[in-house]
DNA sequence: ACTATAAGTAATTGATGAATCACTAACTAG
DNA sequence: CTAGTTAGTGATTCATCAATTACTTATAGT
């Protein structure tokens, strides 16, 4: 299998990557499957061989984006000293925002989508991240872990907005 | 002029109110002007007597939502003691989230819309709220006002998400 | 009554988009 | 070789929607 080999799994991942870009740039509802297909360099109908609906494609894209955050936080916890735990987590999240801005933009969009399946995916993602951070803070013996976990998430959410609107001043200069 | 009198200004406000509801519930791009019209109990084309485009209607709706927050914060600052300033501002924002949830959902949507005019409106709204909070904290002699203002906004943004996804546990139980 | 203007709508238009269908080309196992 | 499977596309379908047009009804001033 050479690098240009197009396995079914590769195609699926390529489509998801294209969808993350296009959905983030154009907006999920406004973006068309034709635009996603063009970005993925395939024909529009071929998307539906891998995803039964546009919404299924969005769900797959969200799954990728949440896995990104969760895996990153797990890595920090495994390898880090518990004294610098919070700054390490902050840095990890900022790195994701730098490198995978589109995934964050997609998550932000999905926060207000009312379809049950999307809401469930978002609840699961947020819930798991919250649980991980809370466990980490408790395990590290940080005082008021509940409140600190909330403020950690809160800072992250403002960070998202500051990035999305290109307003660095919101994060206190 | 009785209460059922339909002045041009009233109609405009009614349309904006209907748009806030429909856009928040359905999503701006997915919502149709026909749905807004139905909610406002007018015909679909009549919307375009007041707003030249769907986007102009969104801008008007965002204007209303930001004015809501800004006016509320101003009122807190005028009438409140500076010792309880921060909790008063928090309560004021929570009241808005309770009473005007749709306006917040609309703002959340607009955070990721890439059209220049929308981004500009969002920057203006966020910028003004940030300025007000920062001025208030500085005026009240709160230490580290910059950082405290950032954390105030951050908490508000997580509060939005917690409300939108119906996840009260995110705010630390 | 009469005319101007405001309030409002039905019908249409032109464009667009998700999803399906019908098909072709390339590879693979026996 | 050939029968079956995988990869892929062009053309079409059916629905939808923002925006326009052309029209009707009501109101107010003279």
TrEMBL record, chains A, B:
Keywords, alphabetical: DNA-binding, Transcription, Transcription regulation
Natural source organism: Croceifilum oryzae
Annotation: DNA-binding region: 32-51
Protein name per its UniProtKB record: AcrR family transcriptional regulator
Annotated TM spans: none
One MF term in the entry's GO annotations: DNA-binding transcription factor activity
Keyword DNA-binding: yes
Any Pfam family matching the protein: TetR_N
Keyword Repeat: no
Domain HTH tetR-type: 9-69
